Amino acid sequence: MSTIFSQIVAGDIPARVVYEDETTMAFLDANPLAPGHTLVIPKDEYERLNDVPEEVAADLYATLHRLVPAVEEAVDADASTVAFNNGEAAGQEVPHVHGHIVPRFDGDGGGPIHAVAGEAPDLSDDELDDIAADIDGRV
Ligand code: 5GP
Q1: Where's the HIT domain (predicted)?
Q2: Domain count, the chain
Q3: Which residues sit with their C-beta closer than 6 Å to ligand 1?
Q4: How many A from CA of 25 to the centre of ligand 1?
Q5: pTM
Q6: Confidence of residue 118 (pLDDT cuts 50, 70, 90)
Q7: What CATH number is associated with residue 100?
Q8: SS in 3 state form for the chain?
């Protein structure tokens, strides 16, 4: 069973497509958080960011890079929040990687990306050092 976004790629479900190339596509979100709310996807179906092969990840970033100013200019936005819900626990509902470009406006009442997590943890310097070393050891 393919994802709803694969069905958009296949042309089986209509969408307001704003950009398409060999490996990526961008279209307006059906339930926009702001005018111009756009989703950028790899055409092939990968659930999470880490499932995306490196060359497709580069294409995906290039499309985001291209789309952000176009979206902002189209709706005369002051800024944009660009984010991925990466996994169910982070709020990902469609299991097909997609970057959200949400245009932002001065005084729009929204929050920064810092508002998305739960209560901020109180971590000691040692704990921070351990976490940094652990991440560094895995890349
Ligand atoms: P997620 O929570 O997975 O990060 O976001 C999924 C997004 O996809 C939501 O913002 C939702 O409005 C959007 N969406 C879900 N179904 C469709 C659809 O059929 N067409 C379009 N254009 N957007 C969709």
Answers
A1: 4-111
A2: 1
A3: 4, 13, 15, 27-31, 39, 85, 91-94
A4: 14
A5: 0.96
A6: confident
A7: 3.30.428.10
A8: CCCHHHHHHCCCCCCCEEEECCCEEEEECCCCCCCCCEEEEECCCCCCHHHCCHHHHHHHHHHHHHHHHHHHHHCCCCEEEEECCCCHHHCCCCCCCCEEEEEECCCCCCCCHHHCCCCCCCCCHHHHHHHHHHHHHHC
